[in-house]
Structures are given as structure tokens and as C-alpha cells.
Amino acid sequence: MKESPKSNPEKMKAKLKPEELKRIEAGVKRAEGLAKILDDAYLDPILGLFEGGGDAASALAGLYIVYEAQRAGVSNWELAKMIGRQGFDFVAGDIPIVGDIFDFFYKSNKKNAEVLRKHFEEISKNVDMTEAMEKDLVERDRTKERKDLKGLKRRVGPREGKEKRAA
User: Fold this and answer.
1) According to the model, what pLDDT value does residue 163 have?
2) Does the N-terminal or the C-terminal CB of the chain have fewer CB atoms within 10 Å?
3) SS3 of 121, please?
4) Residue 69's closest CA among 113, 26, 126?
5) Nearest Cα to 122, choosing from 9, 43, 36, 34?
6) How far is CA 131 from each of CA 87, 125, 141, rounded to the nearest angstrom?
7) Concatenated DSSP letters for 58-112?
8) In the prediction, which pLDDT does 153 show?
9) How far apart are CA 159 and CA 24, in angstroms?
10) How far apart, in Å, do the first and last CA atoms of the chain sit?
């Protein structure tokens, strides 16, 4: 069976570009933010109090973390464990009263975000960020120059500038 480079962090390191690493890092930050809202701010257990859809809404939100992990190249085994945690949280949280209490203590989203963060740290070890940082600095300089030119055009005005050149 052929193994994809995304399922092996060692192979992924060699092919990962700094821009891709930045995209993955942004996804990790979004996933961690969502996990904090769902688990630390207790949105998951609060949603679980609504019968007929609260736990489903919470589970769907938690699947976004799994989606980001899949995009980042987390192994299929880890993805399966993440989905299992999410499914367990959904099923256990759906039990009346006991499930609502369970939701306050079981932090599946936080654990899944930790797995994603650990994967990101592993793949980012060998990526050379100097090239990306240089490109970022050059782009910032270009943006600053464009803003300076726009400001200059506003102060001088298009007609005044042409008259000064002709003189």
C-alpha cells in the first residue's frame, strides 16, 4: 500500500514550503481558538443542554478541528483517534443529565487541538523560515512604498505633479 507524504511527517518536512507552513499554523491557531471556546468557555456543555441538536452542533463545530488536522497532514491513525474522541463526546453528551455533566469534564476538542499543535511543531522543525521571512520583509517594504506613493499623490495632487515636471 502506497503511503502518502502527508501521512508521514518526515516525508512532509522535505516537501513543505514556508508558505504552506504559515497556512498550517493559521489553521492550528483557529483550531485552538475554537477548542478554547467549546471546552474552556464551556460552550460544549451549554449547547448540550439543548435537546435535539445541541450536542450535534457542538460535534460539528469540533469536527472543524479534525478538518484542520487533515489539511495539515496528520496521519490517518491520529485522525481516526480524533474522530473517535469527537464521536465519544457526542454519544456520551447525548445521555440526559449524565451527559451534560460529562461534557463539563471531557475535553475532546482541547485534546484534538493539542494533537494538531504537536503535529505542527513536528513538521515545522526542519522548515527553513529564512526564505519566507525575507519574502515577507520584501512584501512589507513594497506595501509601505505603495502607501507612501499614495500619500504623496494625495498631497501633491495629479495636476500639480504634472505642472512641476513640465517646468
Assistant:
1) 56
2) N
3) helix
4) 113
5) 9
6) 41, 15, 15
7) HHHHHHHHHHHHHHHT--HHHHHHHHHHHHHHHHHHTSTTHHHHHHHH--HHHHH
8) 65
9) 48
10) 75
- Positive or negative CA dihedral for 10, 14, 20, 26? positive
Q: Which three cell numbers stand for residue 107?
A: 475535553
Using a 10 angstrom Cβ sphere, with 0-12 exposed, 13-18 middle and 19 or more buried, the burial of residue 159 is: exposed
**Whole-angstrom Cα distance, residue 159 to residue 145?**
21
Encoded amino acid at 135, one letter: K
Residue range 56-78, pLDDT digits in tens: 999 999 999 999 999 999 999 99
CA-based nearest residue to 83, from 67, 105, 104, 107: 67
Domain regions of the chain by residue span: 9-127, 128-167
| Amino acid at the residue 124 | S
Distance CA 89, CA 62 (A): 10
Contacts (Cβ under 8 Å, ≥6 apart) of 134: none
